[in-house]
Amino acid sequence: MGPVSGLVLFVMIWAMTFFVAIPIRLQTQGEAGNVVPGTHHGSPARHHLKKKAWITTGVAIVIWAVAVWCILSGKITLADVDLFSRFGPGPVEGRGLGG
Length: 99
Known about the structure:
The chain has helices at residues 3-21, 29-32, 49-73, 78-81; strands at 27-28, 44-46. It is mostly helical.
């Protein structure tokens, strides 16, 4: 795995984790009883996005580290996720470069 692949993997894990964290402890304006004119009752009154972003970063680092370890150690290979044999035959053991 190259550095760009690792960065893309981290960004994807961070984004998915952030989307999971956004609705946690979200208080809407309707729940707070203070609806600003022109907004929906479901609009957030308090969202704590900065705190959620920091927590998401910590969780994403842990998930990313586990994923990178699995990929680099060879515990999970492309053959493990090829359920329908669409990636072609794997490498043949013992075959030399000359054919």
